[in-house]
Design brief:
mainly alpha, 5 helices
């Protein structure tokens, strides 16, 4: 079961690396415009804010991978909690879809980590 928990944590981290790339580098490009349902004008206006948001997603990914790499499951639990809170806030303030894309994988990973009892 530790393998399942580890794989789920890596998947959540990879999702956040993908969010980093989307928000920092692809925000004003066709894939970014389509993903976030933005117009080119709105994307250009919010480009710097999106890049900052992407950087924070990178920190979440780094924290998850660091905790996993060092075997500090309490660190993994902390960063998964951060992801879940961000997903809840995003679902409330932006779009409910965020809860499914960002929150559900993190909740599944957290459940697996807690079942393993690695904390």
């Amino acid at each position: 079961m530790t393998l399942v928990a580890s794989v789920l944590v890596v998947l959540v981290a990879l999702l956040h690396v993908y969010f980093l790339v989307l928000e920092m580098f692809l925000w004003t490009r066709p894939v970014g415009l389509k993903t976030f349902r933005n117009t080119p004008e709105k994307a250009e206006t919010t480009r710097v804010l999106a890049a900052n948001q992407g950087l924070y997603n990178g920190f979440l990914a780094a924290g998850l991978l660091w905790g996993l790499w060092t075997g500090q499951w309490n660190v993994v639990v902390f960063f998964l909690g951060c992801v879940i809170v961000a997903a809840l806030y995003g679902a409330w303030s932006v779009n409910k879809r965020i809860l499914y894309v960002q929150g559900v994988p993190a909740i599944a990973a957290l459940a697996a980590v807690l079942v393993v009892g690695a904390t």
